[in-house]
Amino acid sequence: MPFEQHVPSPDPRDDSSTRPFRHLTDPTAFLFALPLLAARPVDEAIVAVILGQGRTLGVLHGELDHLDHVVTVAHSGVTAMKAIRELSGSAVLLAGFGPPERVDPHVEAFLTEAGSEGVPVLEALRVTGDRYWSYLCEGNGCCPSQGRTFAPRSLTFPDSSPGSKPPEVTFPAVAKDARIVALLEPVAGSAGEEVADKAVHIEERLRAEGVHTTSRRRWITEVLDVLEREETERITDPCTLAMLGVRLLDLRVRDAVWARITRATAPLHLRLWSRVARHVPRRHRAAPAALSAVAAWQAEDEPLARAAVRVALEACPGYGMAVLMERALSWGLPAGRWADHMAQYLEESEGGEEDGLAGPAPPPPR
């Protein structure tokens, strides 16, 4: 075969097979993980990690000697894309290891074919010696001309004899600095207890009244009114914080707020929703924490955005909005592009529905 395929067969009780997809947030982490993903040495080779359905679907591995003399440059990209289609891949991470005169032609052929097939290449790197470069750099500030340092010892796959256990791969962690703690750490004592008590009363009243279209319209108005008040005063009233936490449980209310977060409004949203996330009970924390992540992302504060995503997922594992934000951060989706997309969605949804309510948030722009 032109490319050898390695397809993980994960234990459904163990999420380790999806860990590389969720945590490959920078080139160094990606390169450190590749030998374990490919299950073979990656020196003098082209390696493509095929992604889809929120996990790693498979890994293509082609040695340069084989690609040069058997497949040829003219067909290596076509052959790789055929394998990706067979696995129903929706995105790819790519790396080539070796001298530029041998790696570049195959990577460029791959990028050309991926572009014609509409398959996003999330990262494409060349590793030569102890340095790496990105093929996707835009502008001079991305990759220095001398490349970036990378420890080549990580490219050797560990002993794969029966019974051997591969070493644990560690990925860069987000520092939990004082600023992040101040914005996201749940409050303790009477402040949080009072908000929790108010939330219980609001939920009891909600169950008695039931949910109607007019109710949702009123809730959106209530939440947006509080957001407007936050511009001139700091909202700390326990009843109001509890009300916001309960209202955001409704996805239409949450999405009406989500669609209004832009770079210009991000500081306002971050102040309010981080405060709500800190004060409300755990069962109400996922939505305001995820909104805080979006606001931090729009403000180009990636460490805070990642920390807020973790808070949301700890409160509600698998929470859709937080998962979407985690992917946007991992893929490097530009915040400005997302804001334009959401602004268009808000305009279309409010103009096209009789009740003027935003529906579930759309997927990220392609």
Strand order of the largest sheet: 1-3-2-4-5-6-7
Distance between the termini: 32 Å
- Per DSSP, what share of the residues sits in E-state strands of 2 or more residues? 5-15%
Runs in which pLDDT lies below 50 for 5 or more consecutive residues are: 5-23, 152-176, 350-366
Largest sheet: 7 strands, mixed
What percentage of residues falls in helices of 4 or more residues?
40-55%
What series of H and E elements makes up the topology? EHHEEHHEHEEEHHHHHHHHHH
Which term fits the overall shape? Answer: elongated
Counted beta strands:
7
Mean pLDDT: 76
Total domains, how many? 2
Tally of separate helices: 15
Could you say which structural class the secondary elements and strand pairing correspond to? Answer: alpha+beta
Rg:
24 Å
3D structure, described in words:
The protein has 366 residues and is an alpha+beta fold. It folds into 2 domains: 4-155, Cytidine Deaminase, domain 2, CATH 3.40.140; 178-352, no CATH class. 52% of the residues lie in helices and 11% in strands. The chain has 15 helices and 7 strands. The protein has helices at 19-23, 27-38, 64-71, 73-86, 100-117, 178-184, 190-209, 213-229, 238-247, 251-258, 266-279, 286-298, 302-315, 320-331, 335-352; strands at 4-6, 45-52, 55-63, 91-97, 121-128, 131-134, 148-149. It has a 7-stranded mixed sheet, with helices on both faces. α7 packs across α9, α11 (266-279) packs antiparallel against α12 and α12 runs antiparallel to α13 (302-315). It is elongated. 35% of the residues are buried. Mean pLDDT is 76; it is low at 5-23, 152-176 and 350-366.
